[in-house]
Amino acid sequence: MTDYDVLRVFCGPTGGYGNELGVVRDGSALPERADRQALAAKLGFSETVFVDDPERGVIDIYTPSVRLPFAGHPCVGTAWLLDVPELVVPAGVVGARQDGEFCWVEARPEWPEPRTLRQYATPAEVDALDVPPPGEWVYAWAWEDEAAGRVRARAFPGRGDGIEEDEATGAAALQLTARLGRALNITQGKGSQLLTAPQPEGWVEVGGRVFLER
What we know:
The protein is of the alpha+beta class. It folds into two domains: 5-106, Diaminopimelate Epimerase, Chain A, domain 1 (Roll); 116-209, Roll (Diaminopimelate Epimerase, Chain A, domain 1), CATH 3.10.310. Strands 1, 2, 3, 4, 5, 6, 7, 8, 9, 10, 11, 12, 13 and 14 form a 14-stranded mixed sheet that branches. Helices cover 18% and strands 39% of the residues. The chain has helices spanning 33-43, 72-82, 123-127, 170-180, and strands spanning 5-11, 19-24, 48-53, 58-62, 67-68, 86-89, 92-99, 102-107, 116-119, 138-145, 150-156, 184-188, 192-198, 204-212. The relative contact order is 0.19. It comes from Streptomyces misionensis. Pfam families: PhzC-PhzF. This is PhzF family phenazine biosynthesis protein. InterPro entries: Phenazine_PhzF-like.
């Protein structure tokens, strides 16, 4: 089995929750896309990252079923792990920085695949949702405190690849931030925390806590 690290990204304030991420630090061990896709499917994380150049931050991202040009929680987790000022993904160059307990990345909200950003009236409605059938990528959200920018969210990728609900989704948080045009403090899934902030010229930052699981 190819060696890999497991991180939890966008952990809650006490270090719990977060979305698991697999990172293969030596991407040269699996240079072929088909082999990378097969390993990502076998590991079963919502995303698995292959590091092709640790010094330059060149990475390759896969879900269990598809290769992605960009994804939020893999970039935050890998930037933290490699401690680099930027990452290079197929979509472009992702800025990265460490700020105390948070790792931040800066990206464009149009890089990830479009999500259906579906607003509900209350957090209780979001909490009560059943997993929808595969097909549409849904980011369900509601204001917990609109004045403070606090949001309750859940994410349903809809790919039919075994990931019915994402615990923490940086790409969707970027898109919601771009739509609302303001900084957000998002509680997603069972208790993960994502912070976001709009940046000049249409860029958005997303940040969170990262822990090395194994």
